[in-house]
Amino acid sequence: MAEYDLSKTIIPYLDRHLAFPLLAHLVETSLFPVEQVQAAQYELAKGTNMLDYAVSLFQQLQPDEEIPEEFSGKREKAVSTNERLQLEAQAVLDVIENPDVAQALRQDKNQNLQYLKDNYNLTLEQITALYNFGQFQYTYGNYSGAADYLYHFRVLSTDNDLNTSAHWGKLASDILTGKWETALEELNTLRDVVDSRSPSTLLSASAEPAALTQLHSRTWLVHWSLFVYFNHPQGRTLLLETFLSPTYLNTIQTSCPWILRYIATAAILSRKSAAAGTAASSRVRHSIREIVKVIQTEEYQYQDPVTSFLKELYVEFDFEAAQRELTLADRVVGDDFFLGEFREEFLDNARYLISEAYCRIHQRIDIGDLSERLNLSRDEGEKWIVNLIRETRMGAEAKIDLEKNVIEIHRSPLPVYQSVIEKTRGLAFRTQALGTGMLHSPQQPQQSQPQPAVVEGAL
């Protein structure tokens, strides 16, 4: 299923260190020739100070050739640079780790800098040594050390550009060390920084318009956040809350429609728990409805088996086509770096969606027919349907007749006034939004750049 792999699409929006896990996953899945993936790993590793890793990759690719001399020179340079930066950073750490200094520091960074300058002769340039050493630690793979130094730098520094760069580096370090609670906090903080419209706090200080720079920053943030949202226990719910908000949904539709795969998967994964009455926001409960609308809108520029499954089920109401797409989607999810561990859960929730939609339009259902639509044998289907009815709200409406091997659906008719409320809900808001849109003259769309200027500098 290499045609549906998104690694080559996502990697350009990642720091090179974040790309290594994706490439390692491609080696395991064998979607592409191993030699090609190793060549890509080597090209990325050459741009870092992880020299031993780069040498091992070179030996795998070229087992009969000698190791290039450039690696020896790079190693000597890396060792000397590390020693110099460590001495500069340690001088600052010795001061700020002093208990008396820690008690004297306040929330006001300018006041803290003045205190450190007056009492310990520390300047902003010296404090920047923490950033430089943290960045260097990151380049040779010491992500835990990098996170510590960047955190200390950010606490003291008043340089907005370097602070933003340190935010990105700290987030990447937390991701690569698997500290998902800390990474989520860092992600939320960075999102607040990016969402502020002040040009000085955006990802790059380029000559681009602030709004365009902000779009690029949000695009990168969306891709980096996938690591957090698909590893944190509440990540799928948080993903829906963030990505379905108007600001980030607009970013996704404009710059990266392939993220619809992950929104659709998160919505499917959350559906069964939402239907069972688990506490969730309105956006999460209605996420399937929202994402189906977006899938219809963006179908011209992106579709895959996951999005097609929802389209066939909720737009076309073609259960046979939905069954075929689910078979493909199961393989796509299994091969995806972010989604692979949710394969069984995805399949179970997708079957629930099929059952829910099928039961909604039928009053008498043959269990064998429904089992076939769920890609299950008759016995497996019967057990699965029984468990489904027991675990969800369907139990209040559905009764199983095992003698006739059918499910009877008994629904209370919806009151007329309730139907009117459902149809007219939000009508005033939509009318106002339509009127506002008509008042604004159309603007020429701008071409988005694939990459902001500073993320290489942002570690």
Concise description?
The chain is 67% helix and 2% strand. With 459 residues, it is an all-alpha fold. Strand 2 (398-401) and strand 3 form a beta hairpin.
Describe the structure.
By secondary structure, the chain is an all-alpha fold. It is built from 24 helices and three strands. The chain has helices spanning 7-10, 16-29, 34-46, 51-61, 70-96, 99-104, 109-120, 124-139, 143-156, 160-176, 180-195, 210-229, 235-243, 246-255, 260-275, 282-285, 287-298, 305-314, 319-335, 343-360, 367-373, 378-391, 416-424, 427-439, and strands at residues 364-366, 398-401, 406-409. The protein has a three-stranded antiparallel β-sheet. Strand 2 and strand 3 form a beta hairpin. Helix 3 (34-46) packs antiparallel against helix 4 (51-61) and helix 21 crosses helix 22. The longest helix has 27 residues, at 70-96. It is globular and about 85 Å long. The protein starts with 6 loop residues before the first helix and ends in a 20-residue tail after the last helix.
